[in-house]
């Protein structure tokens, strides 16, 4: 008996935000608010560079809690880099294990060196797990 496989590419959200590392946290917040997002991908500066990531929680911990001015902090100062990327062909079960093992809640899905989308707990549960139990 074969088991049903739901891949990350089947559940990921393709719409995502990208900013240059020199953007300010205020610019990131404005963009996040406009698009109701909790994550921004920081673009690579060269082909040999790595993507970065800024989560809303990074802004809370590294800007708000430290009483820094969002218009005076650049995203490169608070981003995580390099990001752990998820392969679009990965089974959602293994993606869930990856998140659990490393404490992630969101990750970029990378195809051919470009961000194809974002996967998070919401997509894994509402589009991955729910498909597996139907």
Strand and helix layout:
Elements: H1 8-11, E1 18-19, H2 25-34, E2 39-42, E3 52-55, H3 56-64, H4 92-102, E4 106-111, E5 114-120, H5 121-133
Parallel strand pairs: 1-2
Antiparallel strand pairs: 2-3, 4-5
Helix pairs in contact: 4-5
Q: Regarding CATH, which class?
A: Alpha Beta
CATH topology: CBS-domain
Low-confidence stretches: none
Radius of gyration: 16 Å
SS class: alpha+beta
Count of separate DSSP helical elements: 5
How many discrete structural domains?
1
Mean pLDDT reading: 93
Tell how many strands the DSSP assignment holds.
5
Termini separation (Å)?
17 Å
Give a quick account of the main beta sheet: strands, pairing sense, barrel closure.
Answer: 3 strands, mixed
- H/E element order: HEHEEHHEEH
Query: What name goes with the CATH superfamily?
Result: CBS-domain
**What best-fitting shape do the alpha-carbon axes yield?**
elongated
Helix proportion: 25-40%
What would you say the CATH architecture is? Roll
What would your notes on this structure say?
The chain has about 130 residues and is α+β, with helices and mostly antiparallel strands. It has a single domain, classed as CBS-domain (Roll). It contains 5 helices and 5 strands. A hairpin with a 2-residue loop joins strand 4 (about 105-110) and strand 5. The model has no long low-confidence stretch (mean pLDDT about 95).
């Amino acid at each position: 008996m074969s088991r049903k496989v739901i891949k990350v590419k089947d559940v990921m959200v393709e719409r995502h935000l990208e900013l240059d590392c020199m953007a300010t946290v205020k610019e990131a917040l404005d963009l996040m608010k406009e698009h109701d997002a909790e994550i921004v991908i920081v673009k690579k500066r060269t082909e040999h560079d790595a993507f970065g990531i800024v989560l809303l929680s990074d802004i809370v911990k590294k800007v708000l809690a430290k009483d820094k001015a969002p218009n005076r902090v650049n995203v490169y100062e608070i981003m995580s880099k390099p990001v752990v990327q998820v392969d679009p062909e990965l089974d959602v079960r293994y993606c869930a294990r990856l998140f659990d093992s490393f404490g992630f809640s969101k990750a970029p899905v990378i195809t051919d060196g470009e961000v194809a989308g974002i996967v998070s707990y919401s997509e894994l549960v509402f589009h991955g797990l729910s498909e597996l139990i139907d």
